[in-house]
Specification:
This protein is an alpha+beta fold and about 290 residues long. Helices cover about 35% and strands about 30% of the residues. The longest helix has 18 residues, at about 230-250.
Amino acid sequence: MARCVINRRAEFSASHRYWLPELSASENEARFGACTNFPGHGHNYVLYVSMEGDIDDNGMVLNLSDVKHTIAREVVSQLNFSYLNAVWPEFEQTLPTTENIARVIWQRLSPHLPLVNIQLFEHPKLWADYQGKDMQAHLTVSTHFSAAHRLASDRLSLEENTAIYGKCARVHGHGHNYHLEVTIAGEMDPRTGTIADLVAFQAAIDRHVVEPMDHTFLNKDIPYFAEVVPTAENIAVYIQNVLTEPIRQIGAELYRIKLIESPNNSCEVYGPSLREQIRSLEEAIAKSVLV
């Protein structure tokens, strides 16, 4: 029988507060900002539960009605309209961040369902993925910027560029409202429940990507694209290049860049930047030579 991954969606509304009693009020505010406000704040959470198994003779991996009731019993009925800090004991030790809620939901559901991923949206621009690897998780922030570009190589004639890029080679360029998703990977702090400081994460994206790229003509305003054609793929690689080190500086690793150029076109690149891969390879070669 073929293996298959199935997904079930659920929702719950809940509030939470980021506050560590061992820290002073000023220390909490410095670390968590407005999320320290008493008595907390709320979200409409959207949960996706992914499960894997063989397709049975009835054409199903699992009976989705049973899955629905399991998720409702073990998660939704307990978390819906709750104050998360107090509802489950796991959140007394580790704060109910998006990534930690996903982790604890996995722990609650894994005895009952063959899980492969828990994805939890705190809101449409922030979500976490957890795959059962202790304190390791992924956190994604989405944002956008508007920019123009022209797809053409200076080495080719207008006719040659048009043959390759079509209308995108027109001399005055064209624009897009780019949608960007940046995913980081790392281990949650056992007390704060965070992979990295969310404010610092968002600030890195704004500083290195959104602010320098928004409302620009990429071919002329971003030096990298003076020699590189700014296709969606190359833009994603550029963003990967400029974010790899800033993300590392906040204590995480850049895992994925997804760039959506239009509703019909998107691309994804994974892992550290090519520059970082080359540097790591050079360091490994240097060490082997020394040995």
